[in-house]
Amino acid sequence: MPITPDQQAEIDALRAQPTQTLRATAPGIEGHLYKAYEVLDHGFVRVIDYMGDDSAIVQAARVSYGAGTKHVSNDAGLIRYLMRHWHSTPFEMCEIKLHVKLPVFVARQWIRHRTANVNEYSARYSILDREFYIPAPEHLAAQSTVNNQGRGEVLQGEEAERVLRLLRDDAMRSYDHYEQMLSQDGQQGLARELARMNLPANVYTQWYWKTDLHNLFHFLRLRADAHAQYEIRVYAEAIAAIVADWVPLAHAAFEDYRMGGATLSAKALDCIRRMIRGEQVTQETSGMSKGEWREFEGIIR
């Protein structure tokens, strides 16, 4: 169960007591406040708080750049200009705080995004729940033969059943031992901070994660990408859907310039210019390595 009865009661109570405020609010995200959106088999994402909206980005930019942006006549145009030219500070005027429940191995990927404030559930003080991420059969894949970081073909038949059985059995066995070590029935019981080291990386943890929009967009660009690991990508996709309602103009610019756009090297641009002039350009005449050329073809084809 992603949400406990106590958590649901807290959510219901918070949503039942709206309060008046003089601060700027974003109607699109107000509807998301406190709600839990299920991710994976036991995880969720929910918005706890936020600050700013599209107008806050525009306000900050016009203060910072003054007359330099007066030729941009509307908010959408200005935000697109800021995104196009890789400005960062105006987007940092917006912040969001999320409550996330996720497997430990996903959290260890996620924490690599260091430009955030994080407070994680502590297994030194509390006992973790018996909840583990077990992949759905369609996400149980072999190692890719072309990508050392990725997955290949989905496992089938007896092999898939064997792997799923091992994952479940190992998770349950480790938790049984965790409980046995903690138990004070006829023994002192091992300290929680030591007993936790026996738990596998697919056990669930929770944290509060607060970041600004500039760094959140960087997170989404990497983790909502099709090449990201599925288990973190689905969290990024859930967050992206919330961001689209929170700052629709900024999100549209982000989708256009970051998710849908491409960064080209000087050599790649030179190849495109040569192609436009009608020249036949190959990897051998491009000045690029085979890997660069393969990526370049993926962009222009």
Automatic annotation (TrEMBL):
Pfam families: Thy1. GO terms for biological process: dTMP biosynthetic process; dTTP biosynthetic process; methylation. It catalyses: dUMP + (6R)-5,10-methylene-5,6,7,8-tetrahydrofolate + NADPH + H(+) = dTMP + (6S)-5,6,7,8-tetrahydrofolate + NADP(+). The keyword Endoplasmic reticulum does not apply. Its cofactor is FAD. Keywords: FAD, Flavoprotein, Methyltransferase, NADP, Nucleotide biosynthesis, Transferase. It comes from the Bacteria. InterPro entries: Thymidylate_synthase_ThyX, Thymidylate_synthase_ThyX_sf. The active site is at residue 223. DUMP binds at residues 109-112, 120-124, 196, 223. The keyword Flavoprotein applies. Binds 4 FAD per tetramer. Each FAD binding site is formed by three monomers. PROSITE patterns: THYX. GO terms for molecular function: flavin adenine dinucleotide binding; NADPH binding; thymidylate synthase (FAD) activity; thymidylate synthase activity. Its EC number is 2.1.1.148. Pathway: Pyrimidine metabolism; dTTP biosynthesis. Gene3D superfamilies: 3.30.1360.170. FAD binds at residues 89, 112-114, 120, 212-214, 218. Catalyzes the reductive methylation of 2'-deoxyuridine-5'-monophosphate (dUMP) to 2'-deoxythymidine-5'-monophosphate (dTMP) while utilizing 5,10-methylenetetrahydrofolate (mTHF) as the methyl donor, and NADPH and FADH(2) as the reductant. Homotetramer. Belongs to the thymidylate synthase ThyX family. This is Flavin-dependent thymidylate synthase. The gene is thyX.
